[in-house]
Specification:
alpha+beta, two-stranded antiparallel ribbon, two-stranded antiparallel sheet
Length: about 170
């Protein structure tokens, strides 16, 4: 009769608050806050939530490319980027001079070997190539300010590699 009946939820709530306080104190230590200043954490979290953007789903369209096209183009350029002369095959790509979606083909003559960076710049029209004179015909201001561009200009006079003759 003297025994007080316990509410089963009291223990769960007490454990939850203990866990929260423990985690709050550990987080304060990790963030180098004083325990007295740890009241700022809810304010930081609230500011983060206000500043964060809602998640969005992004869909990317990828084209299945002919692996032979890459091999032929890399071989034609001696497995080096036509612009920076990088020879690391893991980052070399066969770029289409005339994009496939605009009627370009997977023939070697429609390809140029570029590293990933120069391929992206080429596709985004940050650099344009005069294939007749084998020279860059346009370079955006942003690209001109990049360190590699001055070195490329000084060393190669903005000339790109020509297709290598194969026997």
């Amino acid at each position: 009769m003297g025994r007080k009946e316990e509410n089963p939820y009291e223990k769960v709530i007490a454990m939850s608050f203990d866990t929260l306080i423990y985690n709050k104190n550990n987080l304060a230590e990790l963030l180098k806050f004083d325990k007295e200043d740890s009241d700022i954490l809810p304010q930081i979290i609230e500011e983060e939530n206000l500043n964060s953007q809602p998640r969005t789903k992004r869909t990317v369209e990828n084209w299945n490319r002919d692996i032979k096209f890459r091999k032929k183009v890399l071989k034609a350029y001696g497995s080096q980027c036509a612009i920076c002369r990088c020879k690391e095959e893991k980052i070399l790509e066969a770029a289409h001079i005339i994009p496939v979606y605009e009627g370009g083909s997977d023939e070697t003559k429609n390809g140029i070997c570029l590293c990933r960076n120069h391929h992206a710049m080429f596709d985004k029209n940050l650099i344009k190539i005069d294939f007749k004179n084998l020279k860059l015909s346009y370079v955006s201001d942003t690209v001109q300010s990049m360190p590699w561009f001055k070195e490329f200009s000084d060393k190669y006079n903005e000339k790109i590699l020509n297709v290598q003759k194969t026997n």
